[in-house]
Amino acid sequence: MLLSDKICIVTGAASPRGIGRATARLFAQHGGRVAILDLDESQAKAAAADLGEGHLGLACDVTDKQACLNAAGRVTDELGRIDVLVNNAGITQPLKIMDIKPENYDAVLDVNLRGTLFMSQAVIPQMRRQRSGSIACMSSVSAQRGGGIFGGPHYSAAKGGVLGLAKAMARELGPDNIRVNSITPGLIQTDITGGKLTDDLKAEITKGIPLNRLGVADDVANACLFLASDLSSYITGAVIDVNGGMLIH
Ligand SMILES: NC(=O)c1ccc[n+]([C@@H]2O[C@H](COP(=O)([O-])OP(=O)(O)OC[C@H]3O[C@@H](n4cnc5c(N)ncnc54)[C@H](O)[C@@H]3O)[C@@H](O)[C@H]2O)c1
Predict the structure, then answer these.
(1) What's the CA-to-centroid distance between 111 and ligand 1, angstroms?
(2) Does 234 participate in catalysis according to the annotation?
(3) Longest dimension (CA), the chain
(4) Tens of pLDDT along 65-89?
(5) I need a surface site. Which of 159, 169, 183, 202 has the fewest CB within 10 A?
């Protein structure tokens, strides 16, 4: 049990096959009490109930600062503290550079980057009071290799922004004993691609992966567990690749 009695928030964790849901499940298995935040309240509640007793499901659009503050407040009121935040909520769009319209840019930057800022700002005061906390931010291999897998350039930009934001938060929050790290998954089989990833494209991508398979949500959840737990107590400002070797630095 790596998270005994730790209070953990995972954003974007209602999607049944998603990375956030797998992370919430693993955290609960390790003794954590989990608050699942997602757009739809009934789906968030159902996902929390699925984890067993003592977990919380809340509606929270991470692009809405007040919604983030409200959700963090509910978690502190009902569960007593906040030990872990996983900034997982994200969307992507497979667009070429000239096809990115202002509304595409806004949507992708808002959820992935603004959401990471707003939700972090919502938990930092409580973590500072506790003088402890761990924040894990979901970036992507797209930030490191300039996309070319599924998401467009605006997605690469948003996830690159997440890396910079997380490193800057790590520097500023270290003296408060709050650790901030990022995870850069490769291609993970979830529903984020909305059925637009063909078998041919999957086979083509797999050719470039030394471990010879696409990732599954639990591969990323395991890295989240490591960053959330005290196993990573001297790690902050780091970027953990979970990509099967697709990108080796
Ligand atoms: N699947 C991949 O290949 C892959 C690779 C690299 C990074 N990622 C990142 O991992 C994270 C999880 O992705 P996934 O593949 O599990 O996707 P998913 O679509 O299964 O889950 C994303 C979840 O985020 C929620 N969400 C969307 N907008 C939101 C908002 N404004 N506020 C709150 N919740 C919101 C959705 O409802 C959904 O439950 C994302 O940040 C994604 O960019 C995924």
Answers:
(1) 9
(2) no
(3) 51
(4) 999 999 999 999 999 999 999 999 9
(5) 202
